[in-house]
């Protein structure tokens, strides 16, 4: 059945709760991230009884969409085509894919329709500064909990010396935690995230202190300043293994990130999965001269979105996992995507 035969009959909202595996602590800038919360999702229905739902990119008045043909709002080959419907990017992708009886990842890549369930490599994004309250045993416990949940790769928050510890002591703790993870999980990918909390010299000292740990990437060590990224690029050539540079999460200028990628200064673009949006990622990915890994922290549903994006658009070797149950299936370090239509998830009650 074509999308043109469906007319939007209602757009409603509901709150869905989510929980993390534990209370998530501090990072370089912010205090405790809590143990979960709730988010507003939009539910879109058509006059033929089809329903799609999901997180919005932002909140807006859906009234202008009522009575509109679905084909006027979204093109399966491009995404949302009416600016008035942009905020419903994910609900409309879910709805269109359900009507067309394909998963969203297959909507993005037609070759996926009969290719079986994709598996997308996924790291835990939940290793924060819990050592500041519970010592190194807290880090060990968090790593073990996330490993038991199914993660095999770990992203560590670093930058303790920016706000919470003396600069020197914080730097040494960052190094100590990184080395502990490599010791406990010798085969794991280790990613580190500074939340823009480093000076250039401080970052160099950290990198030299963990040079034998084989970091997978360094995320947002400082704001996207070209001279600093150029200096970092030079320093990385001196390390025994070169980690990737990941940037573009926090309030990005997308054009600037794309230019830095063209210059080889950013290896992984991080524009947020809902901040940037799926339709925007469909436009951006062909222009990107680097890898992608859309930032997904917050609601665990964002990890599912990132996995569909990765499976459908490619060029995304690993995604961020929010350690919380009920929104995606994790197996041996990979999100296993369902073959059901849309995002393959029933609206929680």
Automatic annotation (TrEMBL):
Its cofactor is Mg(2+). Gene3D superfamilies: Enolase-like C-terminal domain, Enolase-like, N-terminal domain. Residues 136-239 form the Mandelate racemase/muconate lactonizing enzyme C-terminal domain. Keywords: Magnesium, Metal-binding. InterPro entries: Enolase-like_C_sf, Enolase-like_N, Enolase_C-like, Mandel_Rmase/mucon_lact_enz_CS, Mandelate_racemase_C, RHMD-like. This is Mandelate racemase.
């Amino acid at each position: 059945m074509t999308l043109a035969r469906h007319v939007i009959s209602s757009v409603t909202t509901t709150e869905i709760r989510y929980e993390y595996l534990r209370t998530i602590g501090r990072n370089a800038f912010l205090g405790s991230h809590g143990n979960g919360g709730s988010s507003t999702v939009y539910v879109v229905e058509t006059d033929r009884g089809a329903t799609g739902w999901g997180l919005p990119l932002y909140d807006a008045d859906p009234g202008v969409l009522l009575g509109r043909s679905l084909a006027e709002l979204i093109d399966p080959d491009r995404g949302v085509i009416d600016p008035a419907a942009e905020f419903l990017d994910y609900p409309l992708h879910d709805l269109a894919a359900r009507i067309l009886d394909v998963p969203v990842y297959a909507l993005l890549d037609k070759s996926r329709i009969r290719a079986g369930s994709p598996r997308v490599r996924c790291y835990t994004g939940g290793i924060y500064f819990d050592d500041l309250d519970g010592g190194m045993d807290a880090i060990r416990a968090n790593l073990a909990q996330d490993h038991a949940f199914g993660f095999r790769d770990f992203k560590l928050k670093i930058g303790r010396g920016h706000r919470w510890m003396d600069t020197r002591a914080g730097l040494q703790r960052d190094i100590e935690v990184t080395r502990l993870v490599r010791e406990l999980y010798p085969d794991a990918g280790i990613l580190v995230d500074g939340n823009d909390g480093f000076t250039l010299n401080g970052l160099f000292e950290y990198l030299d202190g963990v040079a034998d740990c084989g970091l997978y990437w360094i995320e947002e060590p400082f704001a996207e300043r070209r001279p600093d990224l150029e200096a970092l690029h030079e320093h990385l050539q001196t390390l025994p293994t070169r980690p990737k540079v990941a940037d573009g999460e926090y309030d990005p200028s997308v054009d600037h990130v794309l230019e830095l990628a063209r210059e080889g200064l950013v290896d992984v673009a991080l524009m947020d999965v809902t901040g940037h949006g799926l339709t925007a990622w469909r436009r951006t990915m062909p222009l990107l001269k680097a890898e992608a890994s859309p930032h997904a922290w917050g609601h665990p549903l964002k990890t599912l979105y990132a996995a569909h994006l990765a499976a459908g658009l490619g060029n995304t070797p690993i995604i961020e996992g929010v350690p919380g149950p009920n929104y995606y299936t994790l197996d041996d370090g990979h999100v296993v995507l369902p073959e059901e239509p849309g995002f393959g998830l029933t609206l929680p009650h």
